[in-house]
Specification:
The longest helix has 16 residues, at about 15-30. The two termini are about 25 Å apart. By secondary structure, the chain is of the alpha/beta class. The chain has helices at about 15-30, 40-45, 55, 80-90, and strands spanning about 1-5, 35, 50, 95-100. The chain has a 4-stranded mixed beta sheet.
Length: about 100
């Protein structure tokens, strides 16, 4: 399973801890593969990705904000935004989009 992770909206405390926990549990327990989408919904909209594995999550707990970045991009307010996201998720082989649920 390939999981896409993004942090949308504004920054909040603990996002790096959530990213780290999801990736570590997903990789070690379930054998999942992760792709990180940069800058909130702008990432899947424009195909801005980063590798997201255990190595990338080392040492992020004390860092503020989110290693993925965030934005207030709203794909529903952009012509063809949702379709672009669907196309990019398919291109990246994402089986399950995951996001923070604040």
């Amino acid at each position: 399973m390939r999981v896409g992770v993004l942090t949308g909206g504004g920054d909040c405390p603990g996002l790096n801890a959530v990213i780290r926990a999801v990736v570590r549990k997903g990789v070690k327990t379930h054998g999942f593969d992760f792709v990180g989408y940069r800058d909130g919904w702008k990432g899947p909209l424009e195909g801005l990705t980063m590798e997201l594995g255990i190595a990338q999550c080392r040492g992020i707990l004390p860092r503020g904000g989110t290693i993925l970045g965030s934005s207030r991009t709203n794909p529903f307010k952009i012509d063809g935004g949702v379709e672009s996201i669907k196309d990019n998720l398919a291109k990246d082989g994402v089986d399950a989009p995951g996001r923070d649920r604040r």
